[in-house]
Amino acid sequence: MPPIMQSSRRTFLVGLGRFAVAAEAARFLPSVALADDSLKALCPPPSAWTDLARKVSGGVLRPDDPFFGDVCRPNNLRYVATLPAGVARCVTAQDVQACLTWVKQQGMPFAVRSGGHNYAGYSTTPGLLIDMSKMAGAELVPGSDGLVRVLGGTLNSAVYKQLERLGRTITHGRCDSVGAAGFLLGGGIGFNMRKWGVGSDLLRATDLVTADGSLVNAAANQDSNLFWACRGGGGGNFGVNTAFTLQTQPVSTVTVFNITWTKDLPRVLRLLLTELASAPDDFGSKISVTIPSLSERCDKVGTTLSILGQLHPSKTTLKEIFKSTWELADTRNVKEDVAYWAGQDFLTETTYPYFYQEKSSYMKAADISEEAIAAMFDWAAKMPGTSMPSAFKFFQVGGAINRMGPTETAYVHRGFDWLFSVEANWWRPTDPLPLVEANLDWQQRFYEDVNRRTKAAGAFQNFPDPSLADWRKAYYGENLDRLSQVKKAADPTMLFNFPQAIRPA
């Protein structure tokens, strides 16, 4: 078994005092009216909680615990008002089994959480929060060719540290407080995905506790349908994943960069989206068009365009890849041939809890016209704005992702060049509810218009969008029917249930 590793805590996360402020702000959000039976399920006798605590290695936190607020706070503060009745701190798969047995006995709702970064709040619950953060660790599989076993509650930061010690890497993200489980189960995007595929493409096996309480090991040669579904079918659908076995790759050096433009932005963006689509698979990038906050607008801060990314050793130079946009840049921060994990420090995104919604779709470079680009900037100029900057972004896909067929794994989004997203960010109570609603309405109309103009399709299941109408087709496309069959076999009674959960066939 891998060593158990204590999850690190960010010193910049809001503390209990700000948590109270955020909770007060969240009282303006819609709440769910609970029926009498549901209320009874949320109020089991004290003896039931004592029984559960005896069976869970890490103990159970209740609302009067001084650390309760820190542990149950989600990253998206839109859902901070949904506080659990208790938090079970699981250390072993047996702890998870005990929790599932208990919630079935009590008829209590529950949710599973590793990093707490579910965009739509599906890792929050008024019932039992099954907290996986103590089930953390990563270790090389003895005798294997670069296989690493990652426990189900491990944050990205712990995975990165262990891979750095091993001189290995995978397709990984940039936010080190994201849970590895949610990242992998929904696909998993990062700057290595054009070289090696999305994160779930590197999955070789996974352990999970299913709805009947069984602990199973799913791989290509056993429980193969369940294994297929865990490679992109989204977290929380088929069981509680307690471990992942991943194929890693040796590291070398990388060139990392952050380049910014402030002038002629529509032309620059069109050139980037069309020219970079033919870049070698060793190249990965994310383009961001940042819309300033209301206070920044008062200070005459304008919209900016930037690109962040990396290049593995390649015969093609960075300047050759950027072609006509290289000389147009205002600033170019480039670090050439640095050690791989030192390069990732340059690329790391530091986040903190705030309020947000993100909408996504997939695009092909050939369908992105000058007219579509002009419309994007017209929409950006119309954003009502909040106290926080917002952005629309393009994550570069293609390469190895597109060399797999859409039905080979549950991750269906193959054949595209860009994953597009548009975000709306705000802070309550600084931004009044009518202003928030105006910005969400703007976001929806921007999204619909841009999708129509670019023939964009689908949506990324790791960016769950509670406002997405046809989420089943958008997330899973032609794989939905098979996923529903897997759900029927693994969880016919919908024990694992949330608003965008896959339904049994």
TrEMBL record:
Ranges of residues in domain FAD-binding PCMH-type: 80-251
Pfam families registered for this protein in UniProt: BBE, FAD_binding_4
InterPro entries: BBE, FAD-bd_PCMH, FAD-bd_PCMH-like_sf, FAD-bd_PCMH_sub2, FAD-linked_Oxidoreductase, Oxid_FAD_bind_N, TAT_signal
PROSITE patterns the UniProt entry points to: FAD_PCMH, TAT
Entry annotated with the keyword Oxidoreductase: yes
Cofactor annotation: FAD
Transmembrane segments: none
Protein name, per record: FAD-binding oxidoreductase
Record organism: Azospirillum cavernae
